[in-house]
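User: Show me a protein chain along with its predicted structure.
Assistant: Here is one chain, sequence first, then structure tokens.
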Amino acid sequence: MKIDLTGRTALVTGSTQGIGRAIAATLADAGARVAINGRSAESVASTITSLREEAQDRDLVAAPGDVTDEAGTDAVITAIGDVDVLVNNLGIFGATPPLEIGDDEWRRYFEVNVLAAVRLIRAALPGMKGRGWGRVLNIASDSAIVIPAEMIHYGMSKTALLAVSRGFAKDAAGTGVTVNSVIAGPTHTGGVETFVYELVDSALPWDEAQREFMRLHRPQSLIQRLIEPEEIANMVAYLASPLASATTGAAVRVDGGYVDSIVP
């Protein structure tokens, strides 16, 4: 089984680091022309340089812009043209005691984690439908299903993203376009390292801190470790490919068995 995205253009939001960067690299290695997105032109340029140092034949294009507002979204779409594969990866998270989450913070999480994805889908989906092929992938989280007490606002936003995915999949029914969400489990990124150290002793070495975090805060994990970004990227690449043509409106788990369910 070979994943071939030759001739396709993919946009991965928030792709200068972490899961987004891994997804961008994997899609590029499958032959796609991949737009790297971040808020600053400098971070985007630096990421493209480092990705090409790893593999010179990667087809990468700079698409800087803040997709949490309309002007930034327009700038990104203008930079790359038609989008065949849209990966809404951009997201924010953080731990806050439930009763201390103010109205502005609730709005900010919805704006960044949900509305930015909706805005990009509105921009890209009509062209996909018109061409008779396309993939929309929204990166969700186990927190969409297992709402963490320490970040209810984040869980809420990811739950909403599952609904967004299912709804737009219905809008794209019969067009050759699929819309899915990917439920990522606890994943090893720089941001997550910071988050882990907010919840466990910051003096612990990383390997020990990771084990302590999983034991205390994510004991349901069946792999009993953090997931590597490349493991998320592998699933995204499959769902972005022609091989996944019969999968749409789904919430596909890459969670290390964290969600205690026998169905996806």
